[in-house]
Amino acid sequence: MFHTNLENTSRYIRQMNLPDIGEIGQQRLADARVLIIGAGGLGVPNLQYLAAAGVGTIGLVDGDKVSLSNLHRQVLYREADVHKPKVQVAVQHLLDLNHHIRIIPYETYLNRDNILEIFTGYDLVIDGTDKIPVRYLINDACYRLRIPFIYGSIYRYDGQVAVFNALQEDGSRSTNYRDVFPTPPPPNAIPDCIDGGVIGPLPAIVGNIQAFQAMQYLLTGKCSLINTLLTIDASSMDFRHIRIKMLKENPLYHHEPEVTPLIDYDAFCKQSSQLNQPMKSVNVKQLKLMLDAGEDIQVIDVREPYEYDIVNIGATLMPMSQIGNYVDEILKDKPVIVHCRSGKRSGDIIQWLESEYGYDNLYNLEGGILAWADEIDSSLPKY
Q1: Structurally, how many domains does the chain consist of?
Q2: What is the CATH number of the domain that holds 339?
């Protein structure tokens, strides 16, 4: 509960001076209950800024321990915290920052057996995980419980933020994660920070945008990234807003929210030891020669539809998130060139197709559409 006194007024005066906040808004923050999944690169800036802002109750879910490799980006922690449970350390540091708030620790990992119980009673859930299966689980649980879900992700120099499942003025819910990515990708299709790498300031940028969206929503019931995907290219400082529409293929729309099934995504996305074999590839100049010569090849783009709308080279779109639905359309009797933005996702899709379906005619386009824009057609936008 927020009490107007000298200490609280002094602490929050800079934000209370804003016309959308004041004493009433500060009370809304004090009454709010926000759950943050993950106390890592994305979770840390969310935790720090929401705690500092006076969000009254913050739940924190994480079963990991602090490691030395966390410290370059997870700046809530110190060297002395290495090997200690993240949740325990985070609680202490956050209460040192603001002793007026309440932190509820959940020193565990989310799964379909505990997620509904943990989520119940929160006003907002913030995604700070880098595990794709967990992200689908978060989305589906929020859809079932009708809780807004602030999504964030990073990959190397790229970031994304969106607000899903938010209550709209007409009483309906906004789009959700499956309207962008309907089904989980094949195993290993998107690496976590361990495999993909991450530069420290990027999760801070994404996490702080998430925290700002959370405060907007808690204060006004609205925020700028509802039905919108914000994409960030940190290397060029390019920020793009992409409108999200409800997707008829979204499997959640075939169930009532109360009976939305929570699939065991750990089993669905089970890691395969067979997905690390060498693969054949071509570069963009070789592909250009093939196309100019009219060679009988198939070219497939495995990016998502919103990416294809930004820029494409005329390949057949078969989104990675739905690739299982397109297997019958991928030819086996001629060379098939598979591409994505940079070559990573297409390489993972090729390994999966070779392992699961026995393809031996697939070629990865080195550097993806970024290389095409660099070496073939400089007029194409990079994103």
Answers
A1: 2
A2: 3.40.250.10
Q: What is the mean pLDDT of residues 310-331?
A: 90
Gyration radius (Cα) of the chain, Å:
22
Q: DSSP characters for 216-249?
A: HHHHHS--TTBTEEEEEETTTTEEEEEE----TT
Give the integer Cα–Cα distance in Å for 186 and 183.
9
Q: Which of 268, 301, 326 is the last residue of a domain?
A: 268
Model pTM score? 0.73
Inter-residue contact 60 to 107 (CB < 8 Å):
no
Q: Of 142, 223, 269, 340, which is the active-site residue?
A: 340
5 found inside a domain: no
Question: What is the average pLDDT value for the chain, to the nearest integer?
Answer: 89
Q: Which of 142, 193, 223, 269 is catalytic?
A: 193
Q: Nearest CA to 176 among 208, 216, 135, 130?
A: 135
* Confidence category of residue 272, pLDDT binned at 50, 70, 90: very low
> What was the pLDDT predicted at 259?
66
Query: Do 252 and 356 fall into the same domain?
Result: no
Mean pLDDT of 259-278: 57
- Which domain range does residue 88 map to? 32-268
- Active-site annotation holds for 142: no
193 is catalytic: yes
